[in-house]
What does this fold into?
Amino acid sequence: MDRAEISALFDRGFDCTQCVVSAFREELGDDFEAVMHTASCMGMGLFRGTVCGAILGGLIVIGWRYGSTEPDASSKGLALIKREQFLDEFQKRNGRLTCPDLMGVDVRTNEGNTKAYADGLFDTLCTKLCLDAIDIAKGLI
It folds into this structure.
């Protein structure tokens, strides 16, 4: 997935979490639609200004690949190790993990959201964060 494809998804109304998940359509196969449904309410830091939605998309894919449906310490342990590797690399690349910290504005407020649109942050920064999350997750799964 490239910058133009992510921008097109944003233009269609998908959020950052869904953009990241979309990059794994082939890997997810028959699970793709269910995972997209799961990701549909996690963008913009859960719409609460918490962990970046691109990060959440990456973690969803890692959980899909390494998580378990039964209590299994070895699977859970591997999933948690992959999670930490993902978070460490994302923070190394971007310095922060929360949506407001990464964007420098709080998009939950009208003022912050207006500024983010005016400054083109969704097209530039959010696209870059999605590409980073996709790259890191692909390297881990």
Notes: The chain has ten helices and no strands. The mean pLDDT is 92. The longest helix spans residues 73-94.
